[in-house]
Amino acid sequence: MTDRVILREVGLRDGLQLIKSRLNTAIKLSWIRAQAEVGFTEIEVTSFVPISVLPQFADATAVLVDAQKIGNLLPSVLVPNLRGAVMAMDAGARKITFVLSVSDAHNRANVRKSTDDSLAMLRDVLAERDNRQNIKIATALATSFGCSIEGAVPEARVIQIAEILASQGVDEINLADTVGYGDPVQVGRIFKDVRKAVGELPLAAHFHDTRGLGLANVMAALDAGVRRFDSALGGLGGCPFAPGASGNIATEDTVHLFDRLGIDSGVDLGALLKVRHQLAEWLPGEKLEGRLLGAGPADR
Amino acid sequence: MTDRVILREVGLRDGLQLIKSRLNTAIKLSWIRAQAEVGFTEIEVTSFVPISVLPQFADATAVLVDAQKIGNLLPSVLVPNLRGAVMAMDAGARKITFVLSVSDAHNRANVRKSTDDSLAMLRDVLAERDNRQNIKIATALATSFGCSIEGAVPEARVIQIAEILASQGVDEINLADTVGYGDPVQVGRIFKDVRKAVGELPLAAHFHDTRGLGLANVMAALDAGVRRFDSALGGLGGCPFAPGASGNIATEDTVHLFDRLGIDSGVDLGALLKVRHQLAEWLPGEKLEGRLLGAGPADR
User: Fold this and answer.
1) Domain boundaries, chain B
2) Domain B6-284 classified CATH 3.30.230.10?
3) Would the CB atoms of B146 and A295 count as touching at under 8 Å?
4) Stated pTM of the model
5) What would the pLDDT profile of B128-177 be if each residue is shown by its tens digit?
6) Chain B partners within 8 Å of A257 (Cβ)
7) Which fold has domain A6-294?
8) How many helical (H) and strand (E) elements, i.e. helices and strands, does chain A have?
9) Chain A residues with CB inside 8 Å of B151's CB?
10) What ipTM, to 2 d.p.?
11) Is B239 a known active-site residue?
12) Where are the alpha helices (H) located in A182-296, listed in sequence order?
């Protein structure tokens, strides 16, 4: 099928959105360093969003600046708008994920503007990228597989937006199942259609396990040729502005799946499970998901 | 892919093995009736095992006799040996699942004999079937995808035993991932190989979600042509004689998956979720699994 994937940890961004606990900057950096040490080469370390909206990311600049100093790690950050993108660039970001939603209703709930307005703003972000050096702009396309506000999302609209993103010159497109509506057949079909529409542009998949289909959707995306995946340690995650949202696929379960398939994610699963134990200590009282910590890897 | 599957509820058998709670006969029958009413045409209602080993099935005959009276339902039962099979036949069983393991170590732990001795005993069970009328003998092949005692299980041995079962004249082969070691690529490969080995014999899949791969394995089995699946309401289940065993795939999550794929399982998901609420009342204090009850079906 393939011999190599890039698994990006998003627990420090997506994972910290819905929970009540607040991690201080030092713990965030300990977490980032720990995951870099067990083999992660890409970690979404923070979000450059208004502090009034998500105060847990008030230390975004400090986190990013120190994360950039970690060897063999590409720290990426999420931004909802031009202002966040410029702040991230000023802080030295080398990879920035600009988020917009296929569903207009979710885009308005999440970033307070229409999807078309986000697409227009993205042009300014890309122009800013072109004025600087060595910055990649990825785009996260939220609600690509359904929306808990609008319901079904037309697949033709997903393809259309992907084509616009490609023509605007983004460096990566990440299709996100924000609310866990995706099923494996749909996921395979949409990734194949987007691949046809955008040529060789890197594609990534971001799944939430809200209805238990996260890893089945990973398999479908793998089959469709996707080689970049997001996951969150302990199955943390969820968009605060999407009704019914819950956690991402658990990083530890995802690494275990790749191990079973003989696919190299670069991650040492045994060492990762130690970080997973630490995470539970850093977030006392928070409900963590993921099946592997209790079960252990299959022994064979 | 397909338009129809048979989903067999095994919560009343597999599901009651590991938990401490005991359900009385009347509640068991309420549960069976409730699931028949929401569309299940096959339910594994009990296990004819020695009462000294699993006292929760001391009422096996009573449960089976009353379950047989429910319209449009085929109640099946599990048996570990000839004695159990004869008891089940005497109680009027129309479908009996004889369990044996690919792994010799698990077979000894589970039914106190070697796999070859189980295969020899199965011949007597089949002879007894042939002496009577309208009885189907299915075989559950435990540890088909790995064993937590022996580790890896040779795939050639799975195929070999399936061939023996087919030649002996069983009516169905159910490949069981007793300890959740299976991965989707392996599951697809083994089901395809077994299909080639046994011709048109009905095949079924029985997955535990111990490492989060249960529904991904369902997809792989569907792709390989399997049309019969086991699941347990609330993700109950687990073999008491397999170290580290945990629950089956949750029936409600599995029905939701089939619904999303447009595959008819005959089950009314909304009505099933009401039974799922009842189950929590019948089993206070027991940890139930499954993602769908909290999340609700995707709304589109």
Assistant:
1) 6-284
2) no
3) no
4) 0.97
5) 999 999 999 999 999 999 999 999 999 999 999 999 999 999 999 999 99
6) 183, 212-213, 216
7) TIM Barrel (3.20.20)
8) 11, 8
9) 299-300
10) 0.95
11) yes
12) 184-198, 214-223, 251-261, 269-282, 292-295
